[in-house]
Every structure is written in structure tokens, then in C-alpha cells.
Amino acid sequence: MKQKEHIRCPKCGWEPTASNRWVCTDCNTRWNTFDTHGKCPTCGKVYIDTWCVNERKGGCGQVSLNADWYEYENIIPTPFTIKSLQFWKKEVKLPITEIDKKWTENGLLLLISMFEPGYFKSLATITPDKKYFNRDFTGTEEDAEFIFERLISIMNIDAWELQLMFYSNSPTTFSEGIVATPQDKLKGSWKTSSGRYIDNGLGHKEIWVELDEIKDTVSLIATLAHELAHYKLLGEYRMEENDEHLTDLTAIAFGLGIFKGNSYFKFSQWHGNTHHGWNMQRKGYLPEQMIAYAMAWLAHYRNEDISWKHYLNKTIKKYFEQSYQYIEQNKSAFTFGS
Questions:
Q1: Tens of pLDDT along 268-277?
Q2: How far is Cα 324 from Cα 327, in angstroms, rounded to an integer?
């Protein structure tokens, strides 16, 4: 067992420093008596007693046995010091660049300032289950209408001037009363590959959805969430100019991150009579890493129970967990707004 030595006066507790000196009465040598345990380095005389410095120098001026000046503290070895624990605690790295991290944080703080902070903080992550979408989906236009109404409620939209419309990129069988407009006939500045937000003025705004979208419920919810986020920013006059990336972030902030993340990348295979192949499609404007980081930031900001992460696909879940753990490790450095 290791010991740590302390030197102090046994009567008053004064502690000498390396610069303190005592004088040998036989040869007048000046030295620090505790360097040699009371033995003069010149003539070899051993001093059993040692005087403490006077009160003017902080001591008591009394004499004590030299051996009584030494105190020893047992140092109990531990299997891990704080330093070694930090070595084993692996530092989590973010899945996004520092520039993307700053943009995401600044975008979320901007949204907090746009919306009433208390309301913004009360929002929750929406899960793909009966709690929010109590319907058995079969890929019909009526499913799209149902989702449209649910998202309007979730995103707190007064939809008196909004209308859901459909267009088609390929021949499609429609339900009775459904009219699809070819894509090239649509006019509008704000569009994605699967949806459109069109402001016709005079209280008449339209959200258009590609009919093939209704076959994929998760993708349909993500698309409609993005178009309705356009309305939250532009239709409710929070912004004058369109920003697709901030629109994506708004949909995530309103709790639709699971749908945005899970629909970002789609892979499918096709088979014909003589050929087969595959199709890969990326949807949305923010990459998976930024979606995951935004969700992790919001989960910390709102003190959410993140048990919903099991709904995330394998890739987005990995990015989310990395981001969440990174924020957890560095929480003191984060500013989450009011």
C-alpha cells in the first residue's frame, strides 16, 4: 500500500516549504532539516528536535520531536481511476458535419422563435400506430383524405382554404369522383417529387399528391407533412420566401420525423417478361443524418421518452442513437432555447 507524506508542526499545524532553512549549531550550515530528517549535511550532527518558526512567520515558535512532524496518509489503490474510466468510456461521434449540426440547431431555434415556445415544446413525436392513425389502410384515395385530416389536426392548421388534390405520372384506376391532373399541367413554385403546395391566392390553396404515393402509407404521411409544413411557414405568413430544407425541418419539429426518416430512401425491384432490375429513390431535402440529429435534439429539448425509436428503420435508428448519446455526453454545451 502506498503512502503520502505530509510535514507539519504537531503543535500548530504550520507546514514548511522547500525554501525554509534551519541552522546547525555546530558548523552554521543552513539547510532544510526535513530534507535529511534532522541530520546536518555538513558535519553529520543529528537533531532529534525541530523548532517551529515564530508566530510572525505563521508558526508557534515551539519545539517538537523531529519524528512527530511527519504524517503519512495511506493511499488505497482502486481498479480504475477517473482517467482510466474516461479511457473506457468511448466518445460518441456525430453522424453529421459541424456545419450541418449548426444549421440544424439554428433552424430549430428559429422555429422555436416563430411558434409560441410553450406550444412548440409541448409537441411530441408521432408514431405510426393506431394511437395517431386509427385506420386499416388499403391504398385508396380515401386513405389519403383520412391522413390529410389527421395531419391537419396534429399540425394545428385551420384548413378552411386548403384542398387535397391528386395528379398522376402514369395511367391509374381512380375511385369514383377522383380526378387526376397530369403532372406537367400543374403550376406552382413549391414542389417535391411526390407533392405540390400551390397558393392560388384569395383564400384558395391546394396540396397535390402523386397517386402512386397512396400505396405507401409511410411515404404518403411524409409527403403530406412536408406540404402542410409549407402552409405552416408560407400560408400562415411566418416566412415570405420558400425554403425547402427548413420546411422539412418544420415537419420533423411537428413530430413527423419517423415518417420523414423511414421514407427517405426507397429500394424496390421489378420483374418483366424478359428483364428485371431495381429502383432506388431518395425523397425529401434533408439527409437521414440530419433528420436523426434533429429528432435527437428535439427529444432532449422536450424531455421525451424515446421508446418510440424502435419504429425507426435500421439506418435512421443508428444515426438517431449516435446523435442522442452525443448530446447526452455534451449536454452542458447545448443551448436548447427557452
A1: 454 555 555 5
A2: 5
